[in-house]
Every structure is written in C-alpha cells, then in structure tokens.
Specification:
single chain; about 80 residues; alpha+beta; Alpha-Beta Plaits; two-stranded antiparallel sheet; two-stranded antiparallel ribbon; 4 strands; about 20% helix; binds iron/sulfur cluster
C-alpha cells in the first residue's frame, strides 16, 4: 500500500508523507529534516516537512538517505525502494 504524499513535494523519487498517512507514517513535524538539511526540505504552515529539492549527486543522495534513516516515523521515503 502506498503512503500518502505531502502535496508540496517536488516531482522526483524522494518524498515525505502527510500527517494523515493511512499507514501511520505521516510527518509529525519534529523539524529535524528541514533544520538539518534546509537545501532539501521545507515546512508548511503546520510544520510538516516536504521535499523542496531532490538530491542530484551520490553525495546528496547519501545525505538524503541518512536523514531518512533519522526520521523517527519513517516519513521520508523513496519510490520503488
Ligand atoms: S524528520 Fe520526519 S517527522 Fe521530522 S519533520 Fe522531517 S519528515 Fe517530519
């Protein structure tokens, strides 16, 4: 079952899930990702994260994977993985 994506995610492989995600994996606005990696993430008016820019290099992809592993609720995901 696919997760509910935040509507503000830019097109691309990586995305964040919305608080209403039916799998219970929605962003809880803990602010870690957009505080640590503001070049990739922004927060909406409720503090929920969305992907603002996709990673473009192996190094950036590694940064993205690291922050995805850090997210306590698994809200940062990649299509097909
Ligand atoms: S780290 Fe996860 S829960 Fe925290 S703001 Fe980012 S997506 Fe939301």
């Amino acid at each position: 079952m696919s997760s509910m994506k935040h509507p503000n995610n830019v097109p691309g492989s990586w995305y964040t899930t919305y608080p209403d995600d039916p799998n219970g994996e929605g962003c809880i606005a803990c602010n870690i990702c957009y505080t640590d990696l503001p070049k990739f993430f922004k927060d909406d008016e409720d503090g929920n994260a969305y992907v603002y820019r996709q990673p473009e290099t192996p190094e950036e992809t590694s940064e993205f994977q690291d922050i995805a592993d850090t997210c306590a609720v698994g809200s940062i995901k990649k299509d097909g993985k």
